Amino acid sequence: MDRLHLMIVFVAVAETESFAAASRRLGLSPPAVTRAIAELEKRLGVKLFNRTTRFVRATEAGQRYLEDSRRIIGEIDDADEAAAGVNAAPRGHLAVTAPVLFGKMFVLPIIVEYLRRYPDMQMSALFLDRAVNLLEEGLDVGIRIGELPDSTMKATRVGSVRRVLCASPEYLTKHGTPDKPAALSTHSIIAANGVSPTHEWKFRQGGKSIAARVTPRLTVNSNDAAIDAALQGFGITRLLSYQIAPQVASGRLKIILREFEPAPMSIHVLHREGRYGSTKVRSFVDLIVDQLRNDRALS
Hints:
The protein is α/β, with parallel strands linked by helices. It is about 40% helix and about 25% strand. It folds into three domains: about 5-80, Arc Repressor Mutant, subunit A (Orthogonal Bundle); about 85-160 and about 265-299, D-Maltodextrin-Binding Protein, domain 2 (3-Layer(aba) Sandwich), CATH 3.40.190.10; about 165-260, Periplasmic binding protein-like II (D-Maltodextrin-Binding Protein, domain 2, 3-Layer(aba) Sandwich). It contains nine helices and 14 strands. The strands form four sheets. A five-stranded mixed beta sheet has the order 4-3-5-14-6, covered by helices on one side. A hairpin with a 4-residue loop joins strand 1 and strand 2 (about 55-60). The protein is elongated, with a radius of gyration of 24 Å. The N and C termini lie far apart (about 55 Å).
């Protein structure tokens, strides 16, 4: 069989962790997928997968081969697009990742607009509140908030967000508005693990970092839940400014202790740069960079 075909089948099995799912993705019969993997393992002389009745997982050698295979397939796709000309319409598949709420609020509308512009494109969106390695997980574009790790990825800054404290006007009327971080100890605190994983919250005063120890009455693992609890007047929570922008604009939540906020965190669009510069990646990055930079909630 063609070596590129074998690579494509291998990547499909590795990413879906299933021979059956890979066959559906590629439009091949399950026996054809099985034969392709057997031939590839024979040709390479290594075992690429550990198989049980419950799962199919890449071996250590398979993981190394997966990274190289993704890179090679990506470069071939880039070369095909370059040969078709820079003015060719994007076509194929694109995988994007972003934090959960950011993805829902900002990225998803851009994805929908992009797909409407380019009918030959398909996209996958992975919204997770954790740092995602684009190379390891086969993703093309990522949105990262905060410090960037050392990487070969191309990073384009599109805005910034702040860690803010907020509460409903009803709560503040009833319990008073704290005038300094230390006063939080007398208030009902809602902790969102994704934004404030520890109970020692960092602030800035006079150019110096200070800390306030808080004892949450409610701890939740989703930012949505923290927002809902604050809207119900239960207490003060700490979130990222973009996450509560609609509620602040409508007056349902109020930001407090602004003068003690830590330095803003940058937002970057990350993407892999192929040798030829993929048309589909370039066109999506151009669109999302332009729209995020012009969004007032991120400035």
